Amino acid sequence: MDNWDKNYENNPPNFIMVSDGNGNQNAQEAQADQARTEQTQSEHGFYQGPDTGNEKKKKEPKYITRKAFVITLICCMIATSGLTIAGYNLASQMGMGSTTKTVSATNYTLAKATGSEKSVEEIIAQNENAVVEIRTESVSSDSWMQNYVTEGAGSGVIIDTKGYILTCAHVVENSNKITVKLKDGTECEAEIVGMDSQNDIAVIQINAKNLTAATYGDSSELSVGDLVVAIGNPLGELGGSATTGIISALDRELTVDGKNLTLLQTDASINPGNSGGGLFDQYGNLIGIVVAKSSGSDVEGLGFAIPINTAAEIAKELIENGHVTGRAAIGVNVIDASDAETAMQYGLRTTGVYIQEVTGDNAKEAGLQSGDMIYYLGDTQIESTADLTSALSEYEPGDKVTITVIRDNQTVDIEVELTEATS
Predict the structure, then answer these.
(1) Residue 284 in contact with residue 242, Cβ under 8 Å?
(2) Which residue, of 16, 36, 103, 349, has the fewest CB within 10 Å?
(3) Of the residues 155, 160, 170, 281, which is catalytic?
(4) The pTM is what?
C-alpha cells in the first residue's frame, strides 16, 4: 500500500468517467463533454491547451537587489540636498524669504574667506545700508572767553542690529552732539558707549529699528593683492561713496596722532571724512575700519585701516564694560608737546609730554602735579604720548612704578601705584 501511495504521488493516474453498464456509450459521451468544455474555454480566452512549447510563457517578476536599492536611495538623497542648497542660495541672493537679520557685536564670529567672490556691485549692495554718515558738534572757548561751535564729520559702520556703530575715537571725542545719518536719509542722535583712544576705536549707539549690520570678516586671512572696497563719507558731504583697490601691505606699524598702530594699507581712495568707514573684502565682509591717509602733494594711494580682528574685540569690551579692561594708567591727562610748534603753542620751552591735569587719587597722593614733564616711566625714556602708551602696556593695574618728572628744572622720582584705564 505504501508503494502504491508513492507511485501515486509521482505518477498520478488519469481518471475517466465510466458508466455503470454501458461502457462504450459512456466513454463517447465523456469525450463529447470534454470537447464541448475545451471549445467553451477557448471561446472565452482562457483555455491553454496542451503545452507544445510555442505558447508564451508567463513573465517572471523582476526584483532589485538590496545593494542596488541602497545605492539608489543614497543618490536620491544627495541630489535632493544639492537642489535644496542651490535653491536656498538662489533665494538668499535674490533677497527672497528673508527677514531682518539679527547681528550681535558681542557674540560674533569672524567669517572665513570661503564661498564665491562677489562683484564690486554686489559688495556695495550688501553693505551700503550698514555704513553711516556722522556729524559732530563741539563747543570751545577762545582766548576772549567766547564760545564757538566746531563741526566735524566722519563715517561709521553698523555692527549690531541693536544700533551699535563702530567708528574712530578721533571722530567723536570731545563732541557735545553726535548725529548719525542712515542711507535712507533718516537722522538719529547718537550717544557714546565707549572709546579706546589708544587704538582710535569708539562705539556709539542710536535708537533705530530694522538696521542692516555688517558681517565681520577675518583680517588675519588677508593677503597682499586682495580686492577691497571702501565705503564712507569723504569730505563730510559725500555719504555712501565707494572706492575700490587692493590690500597693499599688512601689519604696517605707524604713529598716527601720537598713537602707535598696526594697520592694513590699501590703495583705495581715502579722503578726510572716510575715517570710521568700512573696508570690505571680496566676499563682502568687514575687514577694516578706515583710520587715516598719508597726505601731501606727492602722496597718492596710501590709505590705512584698523584690522577688524583688533577693532571687533575692542568694540565688544566697550559695549560690555564701557572701556577696555586690564590696562594700566597713571591717572593723569597729558599734553603731547613732542614737536616745537606744539610746545610754542603752550608756551613751553622744552618739547616733551606734560601733565595737564592730575585726575587719579593714587597720582595725587604720590605727588604728581600739573605742569610736570614726564621724563622716564620705569626705565623707558618718554618723548611722546606714543612712548608713554607703549611703556604702560608693560604693566598691569595695581603695579607700582617709578616716574621721573622734570619740575622747576630739576628731576624728581615719584613712585605711583597704577590704576585701570577707563578710556
Answers:
(1) no
(2) 349
(3) 170
(4) 0.67
